[in-house]
Design brief:
150 residues; alpha/beta; Glutaredoxin; two-stranded antiparallel sheet; 5 helices; 9 strands; 28% helix; globular
């Protein structure tokens, strides 16, 4: 994960409509960037819906939410529509942003090791620095955990 106080790496990824979105375009706002493994899976849905349900509270604190996963833009579009997600989901199929933020790493399931998304969140301050990093988070109650830090 990135060190708190360090400059958050800028990035440009496609949203669910294939339009490019850059972190730098949010300069001046607090940005909650959460990294998740896969659209429409139980844990990822729980986490996304937590951010959805608290979205107005994030906005009231001057923060925006961005989700990043390796899924393609079309998958993000279906996921956003199905669950009424009001925030941007970005596609990182090459894992470049996931790697830059320390959210891509070795995982294990049923004794097998593989590379995948480490569910984590980085809060980027209005000046582009890392305000807080949350490595290896649990989807349950994560949005409330982030709100408590803002």
């Amino acid at each position: 994960m990135l060190a708190e106080g360090s400059l958050a790496p800028d990035f440009t990824l496609q949203d669910d409509e294939g339009k490019p979105v850059s972190l730098s375009s949010y300069r001046g706002k607090t940005v909650v960037v959460y990294f998740y493994p896969k659209d429409d899976t139980p844990g990822c849905t729980k986490e996304a819906c937590g951010f959805r349900d608290a979205y107005d509270l994030f906005l009231a604190k001057g923060a925006v939410v961005i989700g990043v996963s390796p899924d393609k833009p079309a998958s993000h579009g279906r996921f956003r529509a199905k669950h009424g997600l009001p925030f941007v989901l970005l596609a990182d199929p090459e894992h470049s942003v996931l790697e830059a933020y320390g959210a891509w790493g070795e995982k294990s399931m049923y004794g097998k090791k593989y590379m995948g998304v480490v569910r984590s969140t980085v809060v980027v301050a209005p000046d582009g620095s890392v305000l807080k990093a949350f490595p290896k988070v649990s989807p349950e109650g994560h949005a409330a955990e982030i709100l408590a830090e803002l």
